[in-house]
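#onboarding

Welcome to the new folks! Below is a worked example of what a typical request in this channel looks like: someone posts a single protein sequence, and someone else replies with the predicted structure as tokens. Don't worry about understanding the tokens yet, we'll cover that in week two.

Example request:
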Amino acid sequence: MELRLDVSKPYALALEGGGAKGGYQIGAWRALREAGVNISAVAGTSVGALNGALIAMDDYQKAYDAWNTIRFSQVIDVDDDMMHQLFYGKISVQWLKAASEQLKQTVKNRGFDVSPLYEWLRRLVDEDAIRASDRELFIVTVSLTDRKELELRAKDLAPGTLVDMLLASAYLPVFKNEPLGGKRYTDGGIADAIPMHVLVKNGYTDIIAIRLYGYGVTRRVRIPAGTDVHMVAPLEDLGGVLEFEPERSRRNMALGYYDMQRMLYGLKGTGWYFDSAWDEKRAYDYLMDQVTDYIRQKGETMTLRAVNEKLLPSLARNLDVRTGDYTDLAVALLEAGAEKAGAEHFRIYSEDEMAALVGRCPVSDILG
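Example response:
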């Protein structure tokens, strides 16, 4: 695979907020590390700020371990089994009674108690390492007391306040809002969910933005001439912002890892990952082989013109391939076959490998 980024340049990361979806960004960071991409700065909102702190520390193992074992009770003061049943289990009478008590307590407290999150942050974050790092860390939050958005440079914060400001960035409206340093804050996503603005303002010209599609406002940013932004975003659902479950988190890390490789190496595919080796002629031949077999199975005949003007466009519409060339259509058809064949999601295929695995693609299922 050929890397499409110039690794002689430094890159700045913009990390979107999204609560429990945040493992995706750690998987993406792993791919950047393996590719040798030099990270000079990180700007994060909410969970993006926490992940930004871990990246500034350059402690991938600590980040992986944290997300690999994440639980509801590490973030909010709830029972893990009760929350697991809410997301994945059957609701019972006993569960409803327990949930009712939890809800009463939450209302009484004016929100979920996030003291577990504060303690978790204190264990994870090494403020000295961040201050000594050659990577800048910017944290986005909103001061309710001062009624304004804050874009904070970690190294400018008073000693001992970094964890407070990371928590301030992640104060979702459903959390019990406790004052920090005498002031109240709310989640930075209220003002800027994916903080590219702070990076542009500070002169960074090569930016990698990692989306989570979480909670908040996507701020409009004018990208100056000479500034390049590379966007990485999930094509699959990452779950809920409060779905702090290890299994979900592990899948999100895997998605982030492979989605970042899609950007870094120009991989094709939406549900699977292809290091494309077919040119358009080879892709067209494959498509013709598949549709010819489909026509034969139906006991029909069709002119070459009809195949090109009617059948292939119909295939493209049904597979939702609106742009690109025949290689994109061939990959989409292979993905349809991969779904039916139960192909492994988290690996990189060549078209020939997937074609051998799939055999005959389900053209009849697509076209009827």
